[in-house]
Design brief:
Blueprint: E1 6-10, E2 21-29, H1 33-37, E3 47-54, E4 60-64, E5 80-89, E6 95-103, E7 107-114, E8 119-120, E9 126-134, E10 144-151, E11 154-161, E12 167-172, E13 181-186, E14 202-204, E15 206-212, E16 220-223, E17 240-243, E18 263-266, E19 270-271, E20 276-282, E21 288-295, H2 296-301, H3 309-316, E22 331-334, E23 342-345, E24 362-364, H4 375-381, E25 404-406, E26 456-459, E27 465-472, E28 478-484, E29 490-500, E30 503-506, E31 510-514, E32 518-523, E33 527-529, E34 533-542, E35 548-554, E36 560-562, E37 569-574, E38 578-588, E39 592-602, E40 622-632, E41 636-645, H5 654-658, H6 671-690, H7 696-713, H8 735-748, H9 756-768, H10 791-808, H11 815-826, H12 834-847, H13 850-863, E42 865-867, E43 870-872, H14 892-906, H15 913-927, H16 939-955, E44 962-969, E45 972-980, E46 1000-1006, E47 1010-1019, E48 1028-1035, E49 1046-1055, E50 1065-1070, E51 1075-1077, H17 1079-1083, E52 1091-1097, E53 1100-1105, E54 1113-1121, E55 1125-1126, E56 1133-1137, E57 1144-1145
Parallel strand pairs: 7-14, 8-15, 19-31, 26-40, 33-40
Antiparallel strand pairs: 1-4, 2-3, 2-5, 5-6, 7-9, 9-12, 10-11, 10-13, 13-15, 16-17, 18-20, 20-28, 21-27, 21-29, 22-23, 24-25, 29-30, 29-31, 32-34, 34-38, 34-55, 35-37, 35-39, 36-38, 39-40, 41-47, 42-43, 44-45, 44-46, 48-49, 49-54, 50-53, 50-56, 51-54, 52-53, 56-57
Subcellular location: Secreted
Domain Alpha-2-macroglobulin: 465-554
Family: Belongs to the protease inhibitor I39 (alpha-2-macroglobulin) family.
Length: 1146
């Protein structure tokens, strides 16, 4: 008989209060596929029951369900109930869904063994507990349970009575035990018969198969468990039974539960937003603790990614995997007559496998010795490596005849032909710390901090992460951290883990509720396009015990207009524990972030609400919320920059320094792109130190970027020490990226901690890829197709790796470097590729191979393009130049190879005036290619160019200079900039109000200035330029009623350019305003072989590909409405080549 008495649906806000709305719940049981597939190809429909209605005031719905039509005893349906529920909030229309499943079971009761060993020690009583529980885990007390013990052919039966906890203790005499012993705990004395056609009641048994613990002298020791939880700081009495002979080592182990020694708590369990409170932390003296507090809504989105104690301890628990890594496992050679030499590897101590049901037939198998548990296997299970000459292993006895493998062997205690009531695997979890000293106060013991009464509160700080910091614990073992509660009304889930000399500790999570009984919450889209109108919804909540008179208004602004309600002011009555939603239609007028300010007030009124008297809150009766909305121009952004260095020498690092966190207007979602954020910090800090311009503020900022970049890069590391664009999702590491990471980590050690092991592992990996010629084999995908050119591609890679080793501090006395330089030198006569020559020039400069360097520089000078006092280098097959030469930016490969030549000039031991002169002409060209943020077109050109510019700027630095720059338009002064030594790194900027227009720039004074004009505008998506083919459709194709809340986007993309494939390609899908991506459907894309990574933002989905080829790549995902938007504008889908920005389609 199936029983499912209640189906419950509950919806609560993250601060614990109930949601009011409509619910829908569906309970289904699916047909069993294998039952129906043979007779009827069409499956019958699911057995489903649907319930709908309005949630109760508690935010819950609970209903007794009549499940008569689910009551089938035939095995035609799966033994699972699937329950899907959804709640739609009354006023906002926001729908939240959830699902649960529960297994159906015919098990009436279950017997399990507790506190038992997997072996016995002869002569020492074998003890343990049996527990009897019902199907839902409730202990069954006062019932008789049976323990069957099989000794060879002898079967013993003992009965026990369960106590109030459903447990029964047993103690068995082992003096007469000699062989493996089987135990079976059962609620029924008779075996049950199994029925394969229908559901029958089952009583699940417990099984143990015990082997004798080996001891050469027959000496044994056993530690008896101490029941319950053990507090720290107290003496405990532990009983030890033993039979000891001399000259032998004996050991036993027990797992015992302890309370956690790391705790944290707030000075109060609930606080007002903006309140100043304290966080109290307790750990071992001298601990360093990592503390984090995040919004509960963030935890609910990815609960499985939470760091928990079980996750941490499972990672370090060696017994879980059965002992030692194979590299440290002992091998014992055994010479047995009639058998070839056998090298025995110890069986895992937890591999005491139960035999199967019945013997059927035999087959010959290679002989593998069986071992009984011994001291060796015991310490192996604990993860301890013991070095001793004591007798801790059982000797192996050679067999007299070939061994046979039985396909099925009767389980001892199981009657032939009978069924099995079920096998229960013992829970072997190990629980670590579980104790707290009595002197440590609990969370409830903390005294609340005093709080001032707040008459009006403005809330505008709504972070997802509140605390993310390291805290040092002093010798007292305690730390108190003052914190300010953010403005979000929510629960803050807080936890910490600590490291100390005594080990690792982790606290249980605690929650601080940020709450006020009267507040307003705003619902608005993440972003809209200019010209669209969105519905702003403000919900006022009153959690006081009495009704209140309220007033709410949206403050006016020139940045938007309110169409439907110009006054935007409401008054009314709000009952106790109720909410009310107000709406405005808002049309933003300004691009960028537009702030919306809504103020609600509980009025001091004597007017009654119906028959109830209103009250006025004693504090917090005015609540003001400020939230921004991003207003985008729509279409496709075009961003152009024209830069000019007004003299041959000048400080050109200011723009890059100001924008170090956003040098590129591109995603940073792979390992190579992450390094493009990491490496420039190193070059800029080296420059600032050399020129004595480093300040504590700049250093702190740069160090934080280096730390985060270093930690993030480790996500892309392979086990062999290499790195690749997408980490272990790639089949192998990438030699090029590995060398880039290696040299950058080496340079970064001057400013942050970098584990030398990672550098050594990368170097070892690269050495292993050196071939007989001295050059290096390529592993993994080269990111940039411009580097592909047969043999010269290998030479370019080899030059890059050699340069990286030289930058790391190696020289030609190292055999790897010496052989690599010889390979490069011997290959010089065959090189025709300009990029390869530029790389070699830099490599030979670092190696101080003057003859080879001079030869390469001479060849490069012949290929140099010189005009207007500038020098640069180009590929023979570079992409077509745009039709706007004034705003033209060179492709990434041209910038990169030119930067390598600059490095070749500036990295010499002695840089002459002639070299500086040539370098200044290169710098003049490079500075014109910079984007508005100080970077360049892509990642590698940005990294290499900033390295060269930093060295050049450091070599030409001068503290002198005072210049006034004037920008004029039509004889009117628009703006003046004063640049001197104290503000030389400050980027000064001003808007040019008249576009289009003609402007003139004049400079007066002594010194150098770096000027840049940036033009940004948006255009409708342009037609394809012939490099990518892109098609976008929706499902459904028309705007149906259902599509207004949810629809699917289908994208097809392929590469149709001149090469076989593109470089790394990205597809960026902008969201239609008011819609957000359904994350589960987007995550499904990661299962596709061609998709390397997916990034999800509220208004955008970015999909990464190693490359796109001529084959159409198809994918789709769903969007769902998050907020209502009117007059919606089209959204853009773009595919582009990461390293050739001009190659794109929209």
């Amino acid at each position: 008989m199936l029983t499912l008495p209640f189906i419950s649906v509950a919806d609560r806000y993250t601060y614990g209060k109930p949601v009011q709305g409509q619910y829908s719940a569906t309970v289904c049981r699916k047909p069993f596929i294998y039952t129906w597939s043979s007779g009827n190809p069409e499956l019958p429909p699911d057995l489903c029951m649907t319930m709908t209605g309005k949630l109760e005031r508690s935010g819950c719905f609970s209903k007794k369900v009549e499940l008569d039509f689910f009551n089938k005893v035939a095995l035609t349906e799966v033994m699972t109930f699937n329950v899907n529920g959804s709640v739609t909030e009354d006023d906002t229309g926001v729908t939240i869904s959830g699902s649960k499943s529960c297994q159906l079971s015919s098990v009436i009761s279950t017997v399990t063994f507790e506190e038992t060993d997997e072996y016995y020690k002869k002569g020492i009583p074998y003890t343990g507990w049996m527990k009897l529980a019902s199907a839902d885990g409730t202990p069954i007390k006062g019932q008789t349970i049976y323990l069957f013990t099989e000794l060879g052919s002898q079967l013993l039966n003992q009965s026990y009575k369960t106590d109030d906890s459903g447990r029964a203790f047993f103690c068995l005499d082992t003096c007469d035990w000699s062989y493996p012993v089987s135990l079976r705990g059962s609620f029924k004395a008779q075996w049950q018969q199994w029925d394969y056609e229908k559901v029958v009641p089952r009583y699940q048994n417990a099984f143990l198969h015990l082997k004798p613990f080996y001891s050469k002298s027959k000496s044994f020791l056993k530690i008896q468990s101490v029941r319950g939880e053990l507090p720290c700081g107290r003496t405990q009495h532990v009983q030890v039974d033993y039979i000891i002979q001399r000259n032998e080592l004996h050991e036993d182990a027990k797992h015992m539960d302890l309370h956690y020694v790391v705790t944290l708590g707030f000075s109060q369990e609930e606080a007002l937003p903006g309140a100043d409170i304290s966080l109290h932390l307790h750990s071992a003296a001298g601990s360093l603790c990592a503390v984090r507090a995040v919004d509960k809504s963030t935890v609910l989105m990815k609960p499985k990614e939470e760091l928990t104690r079980d996750k941490v301890f499972n990672m370090i628990r060696p017994g879980y995997f059965g002992g030692y890594p194979y590299q440290t496992e002992d091998q014992v050679e055994m010479h047995c007559p009639g058998f070839s030499l056998i090298r025995e590897r110890m069986l895992r101590p937890v591999d005491f496998v139960h035999p199967s049901l019945s013997r059927r037939r035999r087959s010959i198998m290679p002989w593998r010795p069986e071992r009984d548990p011994d001291v060796y296997s015991l310490v192996q299970a604990m993860g301890i490596k013991m070095i001793t000459n004591a007798n801790i292993r059982q000797p192996v006895e050679c067999p007299e005849t070939p061994m046979y493998m039985h396909q099925h062997v009767r389980l001892p205690g199981t009657p032939a032909g009978g069924g099995v009531g079920g096998i229960d695997l013992a829970d072997r979890r190990t629980v670590f710390y579980n104790s707290v000293p009595e002197s440590v106060p609990r969370q409830a013991d903390f005294l609340p901090d005093s709080q001032p009464k707040v008459e009006e509160q403005v809330r505008k700080h709504f972070p997802e992460t509140w605390i993310w910091d390291l805290t040092a614990v002093g010798e007292s073992g305690t730390a108190t951290v003052p914190v300010t509660v953010p403005d979000t009304i929510t629960d803050w889930v807080t936890g910490t883990f600590c490291l100390a000399d005594i080990g690792f500790g982790m606290s249980s999570p605690v929650t601080l509720r940020a709450f006020k009984p009267f507040f307003v919450d705003l619902s608005l889209p993440y972003s809209v396009v200019r010209g669209e109108t969105f519905v702003l919804k403000a919900t006022i909540f009153n959690y006081l015990k009495e009704p209140i008179q309220i007033q709410i208004q949206l403050l006016r602004s020139e940045e938007f207009k309110v169409e439907a309600h110009p006054e935007s002011e409401y008054t009314g009555c709000l009952g106790a524990s109720e909410g009310q939603t107000f709406s405005w239609s808002v049309t933003p007028l300004k691009l960028g972030e537009v702030n919306l300010t809504v103020t609600t007030e509980a009025l001091d009124s004597k007017e009654a609400c119906g028959n109830e008297i209103t009250v006025t809150p004693s504090e917090g009766r005015i609540d003001t919320v400020i939230k921004p909305i991003l207003v985008k121009p729509g279409g496709v952004l075009k961003e152009k920059a024209h830069s000019y260095l007004l003299c041959a020498q000048g400080d050109i690092m200011g723009t890059a320094l100001q924008n170090i966190d956003r040098l590129l207007t591109m995603p940073y979602g792979c390992g190579e792109q992450n390094m493009a954020k990491f490496a420039p910090n190193i070059y800029i800090m080296q420059y600032l130190r050399k020129t004595n311009q480093m300040t504590p503020e700049i250093k702190e900022k740069a160090v934080e970027y280096l730390k985060s970049g270093y930690q993030r890069q480790l996500n892309y590391k392979h086990d062999d020490g290499s790195y690749s664009a997408f980490g272990k999702s790639d089949q192998e590491g990438n030699t090029w990226l590995t060398s880039f990471v290696m040299k950058s980590f080496g340079k970064g050690r001057d400013d942050i901690y970098v584990d030398k092991v990672y550098i050594d592992q990368a170097l070892k990996y690269l050495r292993e890829h050196q071939v007989e010629s001295g050059c290096f084999n390529s592993s993994g995908k080269l990111f940039h197709n411009a580097l592909k050119g047969g043999v010269e591609d290998i030479l370019s890679l080899s030059a890059y790796i050699t340069a990286a080793m030289l930058e790391l501090g190696l020289n030609d006395t190292d055999s790897t470097v010496k052989r690599a330089l010889a390979c490069l030198k011997d290959s010089l006569p065959t090189i025709t590729n300009t990029y390869t020559l530029a790389l070699m020039a830099y490599t030979f400069t670092l190696a101080d191979y003057k003859e080879a360097r001079d030869k390469v520089i001479a060849e490069l000078n012949e290929q140099a393009i010189k005009s207007e006092g500038q020098i640069h280098w180009e590929r023979k097959d570079k992409p077509k130049q745009e039709d706007v030469p004034y705003w033209y930016q060179a492709p990434t490969a041209e910038v990169e190879m030119t930067s390598y030549v600059l490095l070749a000039y500036m990295s010499q031991h002695h840089v002459s005036k002639e070299d500086i002169g040539t370098a200044s002409q290169i710098v003049s060209w490079l500075s014109k290619q910079q984007n508005p943020y100080g970077g360049f077109s892509s990642t590698q050109d940005t990294v290499v160019a900033l390295n060269g510019l930093a060295i050049y700027a450091g070599a030409t630095f001068s503290e002198k200079g005072d210049v006034t720059v004037t920008v004029k338009s039509e004889d009117a002064i628009q703006q003046q900039f004063h640049v001197h030594n104290k503000n030389r790194l400050l980027v000064q900027q001003a808007p040019l109000t008249k576009v289009p227009g003609e402007y003139t720039i004049s400079a007066v004074g002594k010194g150098c200035v770096y000027m840049q004009t940036t033009l940004r505008y948006n255009i409708p998506p342009p037609k394809s330029d012939g490099t990518f083919k892109l098609a976008v459709t929706t499902d459904p194709e028309s705007c149906t009623e259902a599509a207004k809340s949810k629809f699917m986007v289908r994208v097809t993309a392929s590469y149709i350019g001149n090469r076989e494939t593109s470089n790394m390609a990205l597809i960026v899908v902008d969201m239609v305003s008011g819609f957000i991506p359904v994350k589960s459907s987007v995550r499904e894309l990661e299962r596709k072989k061609d998709v390397k990574k997916v990034e999800i933002k509220p208004d955008q989905v970015t999909i990464y590909f190693d490359q796109l080829d001529k084959t159409p790549h198809r994918f789709s995902f769903s969007l769902e409405q998050d907020n209502e938007v009117k007059d919606m504008k089209p959204a853009t889908v773009t595919v582009y080549d990461y390293y050739e920005k001009g190659e794109k389609s929209c």
